[in-house]
Amino acid sequence: MLVGLTGVGGGSLMTPLLVLLFGIHPSVAVGTDLLQVSLTKAVGSLVHGFHDTVDWRIVRTLAAGSIPATVLTILLLSQVDLHNAAAQRVISDVLGISLICTAITLLLRNRLVRASAGWTTQLSPRRQAAMTVASGALVGFLVTMTSVGAGAIGTTVLILLYPHIKIARLVGSDIAHAVPLTLLAGLGHWMLGSIDWGLLGSLLSGSVPGIIIGSVLSSRLPEFALRTILAVTMAMAGSRMVI
């Protein structure tokens, strides 16, 4: 429902909920949620593509950074035992910090846009593309490690770098980019043995009707209030993961 209402919350809330409330191992929670997000956002991507609210040039530029970063992160994770206590602690810490950063990004998005308006409008196309690739690489690493970042952080970065493009088109581009990113990362976690297929089926049975309900309600509720509630919830969950 939250993804349908605000566009974010798939990895940002589902993964900490699986870890904190249901006691799922962090690596399994991340891997399973990645596949769930990829399948759920594929539907959203089709809708945005149908309404021509996807800038495929931006999608390709983001993917030029995120796909290699995802592959390298999976290779890094394959060198460690994800089920030992030390790896679990690292994933929990990175997840917690990512949640807190995502919460800050949500709360300060409008201020960040206003503060950056002076220099982002003067970026050359080459520098704009380079920063988009770098942003994609950062998002690819965070998403593969924690399943967090594709929504709130990715959309905010695009708003900062492309101030002249309509937000709806940037949101659609970010959703379209998240589909191959989370699918590749999820398949990588599958190779590492970090997927619970029964859990994935349960999540999808709730997320598909939930996102439909959220999409219907999205036009009736104030977006700022929803974003604030989501940010506070993520900040609390992130702090709990770290502590």
TrEMBL record:
Cellular localisation: Cell membrane; Membrane
Supply the InterPro entries for this chain: TM_pro_TauE-like, TSUP/Inactive_protease-like
* Assigned GO CC terms: plasma membrane
> What Pfam families has UniProt attached to this entry?
TauE
Print the keywords alphabetically: Cell membrane, Membrane, Transmembrane, Transmembrane helix
Superkingdom classification of source: Bacteria
What topology in the membrane does the UniProt record assign? Multi-pass membrane protein
Q: What is its main location?
A: membrane
Membrane-crossing residue ranges in chain numbering = 58-78, 90-109, 129-162, 174-192, 198-217
Q: Which PANTHER family match?
A: MEMBRANE TRANSPORTER PROTEIN MJ0441-RELATED, MEMBRANE TRANSPORTER PROTEIN YJNA-RELATED
Family per record: Belongs to the 4-toluene sulfonate uptake permease (TSUP) (TC 2.A.102) family.
Indicate what this protein is called per its UniProt record: Probable membrane transporter protein
Q: Which organism is it from?
A: Rhodopila globiformis (Rhodopseudomonas globiformis)
Specify the taxonomic lineage.
Answer: Bacteria, Pseudomonadati, Pseudomonadota, Alphaproteobacteria, Acetobacterales
